[in-house]
Amino acid sequence: MAYRRQDAKDWARENMRGIWAAALTPFRADMSIDEAGLRANLRHWFNDLGVDGVFIAGKQGEFFALSLDERKLLFRLALEESQRAGTKAIMSCSDQNMDIVIELAKYAEAIGAESIVVHAPVLHFLKAHDETIYEYYKYISEQVNLGIALWSHPDSGYLLSPELCARLADIPNVVAIKYSVPREMYSKLTRLAGDRLIVSTASEEEWFDNVVELGWRLYLCSSPPYLLQTKTDRRMREYTDLAFAGRIDEAKIIRDSLDPVRHAIRSTTPKEKPQAHSKYWQDLLGQCGGTVRRPMLALAEVEKDAIRKAFCECGLGLASTGSNAA
Could you tell me the CA-to-CA distances from 164 to 92, 192, 226 in Å, in that order? Predict the structure, then answer.
C-alpha cells in the first residue's frame, strides 16, 4: 500500500488531480475483451492526450455485462498501463451484490491499486435510504485500506443529499465523490465538505466553470477526454491547464471552441445506445472501440452514417478513419 488507511485523504489530495476518464471496454466480434486494444487505448490516452487517470470496469465499461474474472483482468491491465505511464487508475468495484463489491475491493488492494470507486446501490424499493447508505459505505471502508470514491447518480433511483455526503466524508478512507447531480447540490457539498472530500461531477461542459468558480482540481468524468481530443488536437487538456494556471480568458476561448464537437456528439447519440455511440466515435478517431455486449444495443447503419457525417464536420483535428470505422 502507498499509504495507511488513516492517511488516505492526504494521499488523495496529493495524487487525485487533473482529468480522469472512464474507460469503455473494447470487445471483439466474438464478444471477448480486446486486451491489446484496451492497452493501446490507455497508452494513447495517457501519453498522447494527457489523461491523468482512468476509471476501469465501471458503467461506461459495461461492468454489468462482465464476469468477475473479466473485471479483475481489466483491473490488472489498467494498473499495468497506468504504472508504466506514471499516471493513475481507479478500480470500479460497483455492484448490487455486496460480496462482489468486497471481493473486487480486496482484489484491487492485493494487486497494488491505490483507490476504488463504488456507486451507491439501487434502493428504489426503500422510501428512505440515508442510514442504509451510511452503513453500506462504512462497512466497505472497513474492509480495505484503499481510498474510496463515492458515486451518486440518478440511475440508483435517488441522489445522495449533500448533507449525507458530508457525513460520509468523516469516514477516514472516503476521499472523493463523483457527484452526478444538479450544480446547486455539488456546489453545496463543496462548501460543506470540500476540506474532507474531493468533489467532482461528470459533466465536461461544467468542468471549466467548476475550476474557475469552485476551485476544483479533479475531474472524475466519463468519456470526453478521449472523445474530444486527438494527438494533435488537445484542446480539453489545454483549456484545463490554462484554467488551472489562472489564465481564464484564454482557457474560455479554447473551451468554447469545442462546442461544435460537443454538439456533434450530443446530437447523434441514440438515447438507448450511449456506449455503442462512444465506441464508434473512438473507431472514427483511430482508437479501439469495438462492439457492445447485450443488453446494450449496437448501432444501425443509418445511425453510423449520421455519426460519421457529424464527425467529419465538427472540426476535431484530422484523425484517422481506418478500417475500424467502416
Answer: 21, 10, 33
* End-to-end CA separation in angstroms for the chain: 45
- Nearest CA among 260, 225, 221 for reference residue 239: 225
Kindly provide the b/e burial profile for residues 1-37, where b requires at least 16 CB atoms within 10 angstroms of the residue's own CB: eebeeeebbebbeebbbbbbbbbbbbbeeeeebbeeb
Res. 24: pLDDT tops 50? yes
Phi–psi pair at 225, nearest 5 degrees: -60, -25
Rounded to the nearest angstrom, the gap between the alpha carbon of residue 44 and the centroid of all alpha carbons in its chain is 16
Sign of CA dihedral 165, 8, 12, 91: negative
The Cα 52–Cα 116 span in angstroms is 16
Residue 156 pLDDT: 86
Return the ∠ at Cα 114 (arms to 113 and 120), rounded to 5°: 95
The average pLDDT across 137-157 equals 95
| pLDDT over 90 at 256, yes or no | yes
Burial-class residue 259 by CB neighbours within 10 Å (0-12, 13-18, 19+).
exposed
Cell of 18: 487533473
Give the integer Cα–Cα distance in Å for 200 and 181: 10
User: pLDDT band for position 157 (50/70/90)?
Assistant: confident
Residue of 166, 93, 103 whose CA lies nearest to 133: 166
In contact, 40 and 288? CB cutoff 8 Å? yes
What DSSP state is assigned to residue 298? Answer: P
In sequence order, what are the beta bridge partners of 22? 55
Domains of the chain: 5-229 (3.20.20.70)
In whole angstroms, what is the distance from residue 58 CA to residue 21 CA?
11
